[in-house]
Amino acid sequence: MSSPYRKHFDIAPAVTYLTTPGSGLLSRETKAWRAKRDQDFFDSNSNLREQQSATLDACRTTLGAFFNCPSQNVFLSSCFSFAFNALLTGLPEQSKVLLLDNDYPSVNFPTILSGFEHQFVTVDEQLEANLLDTIATFKPDVLILSIVQYISGLKIDLSFIQELKHQHPDLLIVGDGTQFLGTDLFDFTLSGFDAVLSSGYKWLMAGFGNGFVLLSERLKAMLYANIQENYSFLNNQWMNKSVVQLCFEPGHLDTLSHGTLQQSLIQLEQWGFSETVTYTQQLIMDARAELADRKLLLDSIVNRRPQSNIFNIQIDHDYYQALLDEGIKCFPRGSGIRVGFHLYNDHSDLEKLLYIIDTKVK
């Protein structure tokens, strides 16, 4: 099965690009838009500088529509990490926070550094049960986790998040969507999350310098609550912006970077995002079956559903260079080699990967 989307991307014939978990590719159309936009912006006759606010508002509107979040609850950022640190600073100081063991360093490290009382949950095939057990004993105020684990590819059951929110409506649930958004349909309003934050350079195929936050009304009201109550002391020139917006968007945002994110989302909509998801899910199901038959997957992945677009192939890091030499773009992570399949990949990529493993790896 060949990819109907591959023709939109510049991929050299000798390259098998399986490193979207590190950085996604930009489509030809998005790159062409960027080139023209950048040229127009630096034309002295251009009025694009005066359209900064409207450009960013348009990006928020597109994000809100794509992920079903009110646009007034969408905030832009240069990347996930900056936005996440701003969110942590705005949480009530006495919050008890539950984290996943060995989650993305940009999730766990700043949370610990912020001084919150915290506890970790073991990440294995029983992750959801582990969460319920720890929530019952630790009684956290906030649960923070990556929707897809960056090393193993383990994906939280999104229906579990919905049920967890139903059982614990006061629990704030914060998700890192960077390794998830762009791979599957996602309705923020119905998800159970109070916040989902993401960079756009991986599965959303939008390049660097852009990220965003989706917030629930409840969490938006809680963030920086003391400052919100005393908002009147701020200079009048800021009165057209909320405290939360000022904290997430404290300076100038790059309209080229966020315009690129918007263009990528528009193109996904033009292709039919649900159709791209159907295509990639079939591909990853086939990849999972082949890798499982070769006993190359972690037990935590083999023994559970759902499956993300990421696989950690259990082969020694010594074979990394051999894979690169064969044109396989991948990366050593954890106990194996991490690969990911996106819409520009197809069965020829999978077959090449399997052939190299079968013939070069002992």
From TrEMBL:
Protein's recorded name: Selenocysteine lyase/cysteine desulfurase
Organism ancestry: Bacteria, Pseudomonadati, Bacteroidota, Sphingobacteriia, Sphingobacteriales
Entry keywords, A to Z: Lyase, Pyridoxal phosphate
Domain Aminotransferase class V: 46-353
SUPFAM superfamilies attached to this UniProt entry: PLP-dependent transferases
The keyword Lyase belongs to this UniProt entry's keyword annotation: yes
Keyword Acetylation: no
Cited Pfam families: Aminotran_5 (PF00266)
Gene3D superfamilies assigned to the protein according to its UniProt record, in alphabetical order: Aspartate Aminotransferase, domain 1, Type I PLP-dependent aspartate aminotransferase-like (Major domain)
Source organism of this protein record: Sphingobacterium zeae
Molecular-function annotations in GO: lyase activity
